[in-house]
Amino acid sequence: MKKITLFTSLAALAISLTLSSCGNSSNNNDLPKDAKTFLSEHFQQKEISKIEETKMQMDYNVTLNDGTEIDFANTGEWESINFRWNEVPASLMQTLPVSINQFITENYSDKTIHKIEKKFFGRNDFIYRITFHKPDEVELSFTKEGDIISDDPTGKRLPSSAKAFLNKHYPDKAIIAIVNDVDGDYDVRLEENTEIEFDRKGNWFEIKIAKSQRLPGSVLDLLPKKINQYIENNYPEQFIRRIEKKSYGYRVKLNKPNNVELSFSKSGDFQRIESKNTENTDSNSEKIE
Q1: Residue 273 pairs with which residues in a beta bridge?
Q2: pLDDT band at 277 (very low <50, low <70, confident <90, very high)
């Protein structure tokens, strides 16, 4: 009986050690083809010291012998590169849009890059985020085409009321980008496809979310109670995907299959159905008596 118990224990230990080592190696062959090509093109003089498979083996974290860390998606596409204090390969910078290199040369030539990231906020859409070393730790955000979005992706220069709004209603969502338009408004894009627009004073006037998301209860509480009650009574299976504050009151868009847009007064009284089309115009409005 003791022999069986000992054998079982040794077998369990062997399985445990095997499993624990599955997600950690330094073998280049463990990487997708595109990741191996990327490393050979831009880090050919470096050796891999560690490869970790993360998120249920859906992506890879590669550490080079100089401490550089690179995150790859399961497709082999690079998503993040932490250079620490190492030099950024010129060949890698050349893969970025020309306008990004020009902007950095013209405005931050005295700084060294600490990190380059691709921040995805849609299935096929992403922005570049470039972080410089301390003491400034400046962060720049660019579209994938290379247009500057913001040098304030952490929201430091947002009006205090906008910061308070985000801290109260979206404390756990990271800011992906902040776009300042010609009117001085702020278009704040959060992770998971949440987008909030603030005026120059920091007052919100539009909130949009992805179809897979839900508005926080605290945001719904910002609406007059009549609006939430009307939607609950007439569209019990729907949820709000967009809220706009208008001069007359509120415009609310519901999710599919209806895609209904409803207009309400400032006090929350129902006014009319704007449209059931994806793009809406007042010419399509229908008043309900």
Answers
A1: 262, 286
A2: low
| Strand 194-198, strand 148-150: pairing | unpaired
What is the pLDDT averaged over residues 152-178?
88
What are residue 20's phi and psi, to 5 degrees?
Answer: -70, -25
Residue 166 CA to residue 200 CA, distance in Å, equals 15
From the list 87, 88, 108, the residue with the least C-alpha distance to 96 is 88
Q: Is the pTM of this model over 0.70?
A: no
Phi and psi, residue 100, nearest 5°: -65, -45
Which residues, 6 or more positions from 46, have their beta carbon under 8 angstroms from its beta carbon? 39, 64, 65, 66, 68
Q: How far apart are CA 69 and CA 61, in angstroms?
A: 7
Query: Can you tell me whether residue 237 is helix, strand or coil?
Result: coil
**CA-to-CA distance for 158 and 12, rounded, in angstroms?**
55
Residues counted in the chain = 289
Do the beta carbons of residue 71 and residue 79 sit within 8 Å? yes
CA–CA dist 235, 276 (Å, integer): 13
